[in-house]
Specification:
CATH architecture of the largest domain: Up-down Bundle
CATH topology of the largest domain: Four Helix Bundle (Hemerythrin (Met), subunit A)
Distance between the termini: 37 Å
Strand content: 5-15%
Number of strands: 7
Number of domains: 2
CATH superfamily of the largest domain: dinb family like domain
Shape: globular
Oligomer: single chain
């Protein structure tokens, strides 16, 4: 019996198409924005947003993850905050040409993985910042990061990311959440629903599946909002408790999210953590939508 492995089961071609399209869109945004302009992230200009996504002589995230997978996926997890601080400090004064070249190098590293690494590596585990994941799920995870940071660049004057890039970011979010649920032996699932459709995952101790949803489809436990708001809520850019109270975000079968909330204890910095904490915070207070959710 084949063990399901989420978006890795969709195959390298599908994942590669989504990730490389996300890279192309982000490169277009970076080329259009003044890197000296501030963003909605405190203390980060467009320069820092772009720098930490690039490949530099002292920083090549994907190469390290692939090497760890070749070695059995047993290496230590990096602290993303420490890594980001080191890389942005080292290259905060890099020229515009250097920053754009670093971003192109990161895209090329992904393209080379997809073209050159053996197929078995796609489902091999590697230690990411949130836990052990299949390499292809980590590769797809770039789409989430590029979508979220693409929205960050909008606050600095860049054009908005394409709708399909936002959908790819949500696919990555569903995939990682399903993977961590399966790793924790949690039998549960949820959907991320937008007006253009969305993504649903289902997990148990054996593995997890991810599937695309048609517009208007909201099966079972679901979080519903425009794609950009879902990504902003998942990344902590927007407080989901406030978005829910203002009816910008809707939750179907909130108790179902509570089944997934333990993931946050095992991986506090996971994408989507603020949304999972929404269930615990909302259902755990007698006054309903009370308190403030920390930024993730």
């Amino acid at each position: 019996m084949t063990v399901p492995r989420g978006m890795a089961d969709a195959g390298r071609d599908e994942v590669g198409r989504r990730v490389l399209a996300a890279w192309d869109a982000f490169l277009d945004q970076a080329a259009a924005v003044d890197l000296r302009r501030g963003t909605r992230l405190p203390g980060w200009r467009a320069q820092e947003v772009c720098v930490h996504l690039g490949v530099w002589p002292d920083h090549a995230a994907l190469a390290g993850l692939v090497a760890d997978a070749h070695a059995g996926g047993r290496g230590p997890a990096a602290d993303p905050d420490a890594v980001n601080a080191r890389v942005t400090a080292a290259h905060r004064d890099a020229s515009r040409a250097e920053v754009l070249a670093a971003l192109r190098a990161a895209r090329l590293a992904t393209q080379r993985y997809l073209a050159e690494e053996p197929a078995w590596l796609d489902t091999a585990p590697t230690v990411s910042t949130v836990g052990r994941l299949p390499v292809l799920s980590v590769v797809l995870g770039q789409a989430y990061e590029l979508a979220v940071h693409g929205l960050d660049l909008v606050s600095a004057g860049a054009p908005a990311p394409p709708a399909e890039v936002l959908q790819s970011g949500l696919a990555a979010l569903a995939d990682v959440t399903g993977a961590l649920a399966a790793a924790g032996g949690i039998t549960a699932g949820a959907a991320l629903v937008t007006p253009d459709g969305g993504w649903a995952f289902a997990a148990d101790g054996a593995g997890w599946t991810v599937r695309r949803l048609a517009p208007g489809e909201a099966p079972g436990t679901a979080v519903e909002a425009p794609a950009d708001l879902l990504l902003d809520a998942a990344s902590g850019r927007v407080n989901p408790v406030v978005a829910l109270a203002r009816r910008r975000l809707r939750v179907h079968q909130l108790a179902g999210l509570l089944e997934l909330a333990p993931i946050v204890q095992s991986a506090p910095g996971i994408p989507g953590g603020p949304i999972l904490q929404l269930a615990a915070r909302t259902l755990g207070t007698t006054g309903g939508l009370l308190g403030r959710l920390r930024r993730g």
